[in-house]
Amino acid sequence: MNRFKEALFSGKIIGIIIAALLVWFIVAFLVYPNLNLLIATFFSDGSFSVKPFQKLLHSTRALKSLLNSFVLAVSLVVTVNVVGIFLVLVTEYYEIKGAKLLRLGYMTTLIYSGIVLVFGYKFVYGEGGIITKILVQLFPHLNPAWFTGYWAVLYVMTFAITSNHVIFLSNAIKKIDYQTIEAARNMGASSFYILRRVVFPVLKPTLFAVTVLLFLTGLSATSAPLVLGGRDFQTITPMILTFVQSLTSRDMASLLAMILGAFTWILLSILRKVEKDGNYISISKVKSQIVKQKINSKLANIMVHGLAYLLFGIYALPVILIVIFSFTDNYSIITATLSFDRFTFANYARLFTHFSDFKPYGVSILYSSVSSILVVILALIVSRILHKYKNIFSTVLEYAMLIPWLLPSTLIALGLIITYDSPKLIMLNQVLTGSVYILLIAYVIVQIPFTLRMLRAAFFTVDRSLEDASQSLGAGPFYTFRRVLLPILLPSTLAVLAMNFNGHLADYDLAVFLYHPIMQPLGIVIKNSTSEQASGDVQALVLVFSVILMVLSSITLYLVYGRKSKE
């Protein structure tokens, strides 16, 4: 008995239990569902079959969805890079009046995204939107349902996914050594030459990484094609959703998801290889802070200012109208008209006084908070192991935890659905498909790579001497972690927790595959409100949901980024 207590106190038994649970989690949720999906697709009869490929090649809808996804991905690489680079240049490189205000407008995509953003753009440009009503008055023969199809999806996504440019490219341009720009100017180089030969080469690594992410986003786009694509422009993920609802076409849904996963793996591998082989080192020992450049041509200056504020209007208009109309009654929302005597707080009062109205928000809060806490606990344990041990187990553990990074969320969802739609011994014969737990598990899975990378980086900032001193004083591993390491890691941990919580409040991409009918999360309710048949009450409620989400996102971004910038 004394030996057992000594072993327990030393942490050996706890370590074995943790290792066993980690192995079970990796096998049950990261490896087995994906292997089982592969087997169920190509070995359904016990032997390898190319039938899914044959069905895919004979399906016009499936092939068209593949083509549409590639067309959208390639288009976004062009449009988003053009817009994103312009945004960064006018806010960080050129001397533009009102640059701080412009930056706030361009950053609105950080406080609302996904299905909420698509709802906002459809609310403005859709059949009953304010812009559409103005256009119909100007052009009476215009079809009120003009905002649909490829161009509508491209328009929305172009302005929806410039967030990476605003964050990463802005940081990259701030690190440019101004002395190199001055040297080029003193040698007679023009502004355009400096931009092309001095500035852009420094931004090249970041631009390449962002471009790969853009292509992947276009391939796996869900919300915008589903809401705005119409019948003529459906991409891979909406088509997978259609196929998975029928047992006879699930193999095609799985094959499409695998194709999406294959391209994801290939592109991320290329990105990792380029980053690994790249050697981007400044030759300047003392960097000087970049000074914003003046646009010497008066005409060019006017044109750049005009375009910058036009883009500001495109970004800010949906946010402004969502906030304003959230304080109006149903008539104003349906008719897209504003009148002071119709402003009211009834929509907000209704949300917090009727359980049925608050339920979707409560469900999303529950899923987001629980999954965020679970994945942070998991990542802290794994990060601790990776930080302390260098062996085969830690190496395999690290690579296994990065599996979700290589897989689209669609493939993860399908793997869980198909694997656990019947009792499995590894899950103690419990059926997960159709339960309220499967969405929670999926949220944990997709959050692992980001959470692990952030917390692991935080671990390597901890001075090892603190841990050694604690252990030399007789403290056990758990006590050392709880009283020495965790307080140091707490700011980073809370920041990651807040980002994870915020990121899945209005999730639709996973929820649409895995949600339980009696536990509809917010993303599903918002998607349903984009239908032309949605009532004014539903749209009013979604407007309120959207405003609250934007407020929460703004608070999260301030706590994570705003406070750091002041330190």
Characteristic terms for this protein:
mainly alpha; 27 helices
Provide a descriptive summary of the structure in words.
This protein is mainly α and 567 residues long. The chain has 27 helices and no strands. It starts with a helix and ends with a helix.
Summarize the structure.
With 567 residues, this protein is an all-alpha fold.
Elements, N to C (H/E): HHHHHHHHHHHHHHHHHHHHHHHHHHH
Give the overall shape, derived from the CA principal axes: globular
Average pLDDT: 82
* Percent helix: over 70%
Proportion of residues in extended strands: under 5%
Q: Major sheet: size, sense and barrel closure?
A: none
The parts where pLDDT drops under 50 for at least 5 residues are 279-286
- End-to-end CA span: 52 Å
Number of alpha- plus pi-helical segments: 27
Helix vs. strand class: mainly alpha
Task: Give the beta-strand count.
Answer: 0
Radius of gyration over all CA atoms, rounded: 26 Å
